[in-house]
Amino acid sequence: MELQHGGNVYDGGLEAFRRNGTLLDFSANINPLGMPEGVRRAVTEALSQAVHYPDPMCRKLKEALGEYHGVPEEYLICGNGGADLIYRLVYALRPGTALLTAPTFAEYEEALKQTGTEISFYRTGPELEIREDILEQMEERPDVMFLCNPNNPTGLLTEPSILEAAATRAEELGICLVLDECFLDFTGQEERSFIGRTEEFPHLFILKSFTKMYAMPGIRLGYGISGNRELLECMERAGQCWGVSVLASEAGIAALKERAYKEEAVRLVRRERQMLKKGLEDLGLRVWDGQADYLFFRADGVTDLYERLYPEGILIRRCANYRGLDRECYRTAVKTREENLRLLEALERVLSKGGRPQT
Question: What CATH number corresponds to the domain at position 228?
Fold first, then answer.
């Protein structure tokens, strides 16, 4: 089975780096501050409750999320990570046709393949931006459409006017618009969120996750927000009864209280992203102006950058499996200053030895 995502820290060739604590995983975009202490404590304390089945309705978690986002609890659905909710939504809708951007998060397409959905693609072009002409493809009336903001792997934000027009057009045409905002927290621009507009746009489903911001991918917790109660009920039936564990639920409730931690993370990522972007450009790499906790770049003529860094115990994300990209495309997470400098130093070494990008 070929892995579609980053975070493959379990590969046998990395065992020595794991043992001595020198493994650097830039292939997964996780908060460089690590898991908040409050979340760790909540998980530990919840162990005594794990002798019981979880609440299948996630009532405590939904109450906390509703208060946090200012939305009714009945607008919420919780799941075993964002990916679980993507599959639940597709299984619930069983769409005949879908519209995806290219490139974007691969799990949308993988889920749609499970239901035999006919998929059309909006090609973002050389600059990898979503432009206003995406509205023209919406005229084909797909049953569902996925937009990731900021997009993965580019980190680029879509213009608010385009999202506004897309949401309005989706209502007019009866298209279920899935807006993935899992990385929006890192941009420091949460005013771009459509969470407060789910009542205005009942065909809108917003996807969120605790994974990235709170550095808890192994716990698996995501949620969705929509004013379409029929859709949410269908999604509940499309998955297992106990999709969110006792530990995950308590972790999520604790994470929502970590406001200072979140603000610190946004400041750190913004500062380090600028430094890392300049460092990558100084090495002759073309770097896109992503706004999340990762940067997408192209190394012209270099198709083995992942393989060059691997022996150093450093993982970056190969992006050739993203539709529309090739083997010269890569993505790296933004981490702490020390870790970012180690990445840049390693890149300098391997590019000097194996050949630099063509200019």
Answer: 3.40.640.10
Mean pLDDT for the chain?
A: 95
pLDDT at 100 over 60: yes
Note the pLDDT tens digit of each residue in 3-45. 466 666 667 677 767 677 779 999 999 999 999 999 999 999 9
The DSSP annotation for 299-344 comes to -TT---HHHHHGGGTEE-EE-TTSTT--TTEEEEE---HHHHHHHH
Which residue, 255, 280, 314, sits at the end of a domain? 255
Residue with tokens 């089975």: 1
Strands (E), 194-239: 204-209, 222-226
Q: For residue 26, tell me if it sits in a domain.
A: yes
Query: Same domain for 283 and 264?
Result: yes
Q: DSSP E strands: which ranges in 17-154?
A: 24-25, 76-79, 97-102, 118-123, 144-148
Give the β-pairing of 329-333 and 317-318.
Answer: antiparallel
> Structural domain of residue 285, as residue ranges?
16-34+259-353
**Residue 2 has what pLDDT?**
47
pLDDT tens digits along 247-261: 999 999 999 999 999
